[in-house]
Description:
Layout (H helix, E strand, L loop, with lengths): L7 E5 L17 H13 L5 E5 L5 H4 L5 H10 L6 E4 L2 E3 L3 H20 L5 E4 L21 H13 L4 E5 L6 H7 L5 E8 L15 E6 L5 H19 L3 E6 L16 H18 L4 E5 L5 H16 L3
Parallel strand pairs: 1-2, 1-5, 5-10, 6-7, 6-9, 7-8, 9-10
Antiparallel strand pairs: 3-4
Helix pairs in contact: 1-9, 4-5, 7-8, 8-9
Amino acid sequence: MMPVVKKTAFTTHADCLKHEMGAGHPEQPARLTAIEDQLIASGVGQFLDRREAPLATDEQIARVHPIEYVQAIREASPQSGRVHLDPDTAMNPHTLQACLRAAGAAVFATDLVMSGEVANAFCSVRPPGHHACRTRPMGFCVFNNVAIAARHAIATHGAGRVVIIDFDVHQGNGTEEIFEGDEHVLMASTFQHPFYPYSGTDSPASNMVNIPLPAGAGSMQFREAVAKYWIPALDEFAADLMIISAGFDAHQEDDLASLRLADDDYRWVTQELKAVAERHGGGRIVSVLEGGYSLSALGRSAVQHLRVLAGVN
Length: 313
Ligand SMILES: [Zn+2]
């Protein structure tokens, strides 16, 4: 393997392992362990700059979610047992802390990348965030981590244009709700359609590049969509920072959905995105874990993604 010149930060926290929604829930702590295992097995882990995620502050979260919502989540946090926020999303006594670490990781990674301390960063965190709307938890998500990072980059680092990429198999309805019509943000996504959460195709705003893919679509359709729709829009927008909602559940081994991507598609798309970021945004990329429920495919795909981010051959 070649040594890396610029650093890739890998931001996570042990608190993210303590959030747990019950036996058999696919959004489980073992997801993060699966990524760690593959980082060791592949040898890629040694090239990453490991950083502990801080807690997000109310001020940071409140750029996206009203403070009343943050307060309601705090008040819902149980002393013991579990409370459900929606049919798929529950809190245990550690969930609030995990949520603050997940959002905090995205903010911290943004600081590291925007200051030039690292070239790019990956946040290996849970809960995920892209279904979280301004005032509503949904689909395993409580706070919208990528949205909080984008607003942080704009508010504190002077980023004029931020692009959010979302290749999770589920449409990022929360991120879309937060940024539709926002001139500072372009969102480009692919997702299985029709499929949960059944959004993204009904006259999206002009800053949304939403590309639905039918069940069964695989590498060819995905790569065509990226080349034909994402790349020209990204080149035209010329963002200062790229944030990725990195969900790996469009993988063919993932039982939660029916797209047919392979490990190599995650290598390929990361290479394409990195090239765009190098053309326009000084290579600045903050990638944040979303879905991915086949533990083996998640670990392997995340390592493909990280291998390209870190420039490890
Ligand atoms: Zn997903």
